[in-house]
Fold this sequence. Notes:
Order of helices and strands: EHEHHEHHHHEHEHHHHH
Number of domains: 2
Strand order of the largest sheet: 1-2-3
Structural class: mainly alpha
CATH superfamily of the largest domain: HUPs
Bound molecules: iron/sulfur cluster
Amino acid sequence: MHRILSGIQPSGSLHIGHLVGALDNFALLQGRGEAFYMIADWHALTSKYENVGEIWPATLELTATYLAAGLDPAQSTLFVQSLVKEHAELHLLFSMMTPLSWLERVPTYKEKLQNAAADLGSYGFLGYPLLQTADIVLYKAHKVPVGEDQLFHLELAREVVRRFHFLYQCEVFPEPEAVLTKTPKVPGLDGRKMSKSYGNCIYLRDTNTEILEKCTRQMASDPARVRKTDPGNPDICPVMDFHKLFSDEATVQMVDTECRRAGIGCFDCKKRVAEAITRRIEPVREKIEAHLAQPAHLEDVLRDGSARARTVAAATLAEVREAMKMPA
Ligand code: SF4
């Protein structure tokens, strides 16, 4: 059976882009292979090393969100990265045999270094794609649900696997393959990529009122449509992107037609999109809150899952140590 691994950093509330871009995909894949979904708390340390007190509450919130999005601990192993110490050992071993230039050329490295609020000029931040490699191959994962911005990291993982096999004349790991989500990228309220750092998100825990206000007051629309009587162009309007993701087909068709002939105003259009987003999010939000009210249960899910993950990780690491002629 194929193994699937993916994960998210516990660095604050998730937004609707995470839901339709990652979590829906996670839930879809859990019945199609042996799925491992990680809470990447060591990765969160790359930017939260000064605010470590935020990581555990965020870990519980992410666990509640995983469950609310349909991940079932009986079908998927939900675990915390730092509770499986084998990730750190394999990362260290890979760090000895990976050329520095492979990490320095990762496109997101320089970009994030320049744009992040926290100082990311650390040894750990340079190495985080290698820690991701260890995360994936420790479970011998064949399939990795990722966004397009992670494709380079996956290629790095494949290169590291090939180098390991070449150096130690063994075949321990499968070369992992990306599973891209079929959902188009969710734009932010300002039309750029939805991202916490841009302050343009609709969060899964936003109230219905907050969603309505964000959509009607902050969501960008066709800038050329100044008056209600001007025809608009839904092909370039970010509101239409949200309709395509959250509204039913009849509404999408209606907006497409009426916008072009100024038959619907932008406020009304945004109100309808807010209602569609609310319909999708409200049940998820209610489940998140219900799970968060039971922190002991969330901890149990994580401790059980992490123990299961550790068994698989320890077996792989035993093969690695043997290949590298290390004592058992
Ligand atoms: Fe955009 Fe809707 Fe206004 Fe058309 S009516 S420009 S799709 S917000």
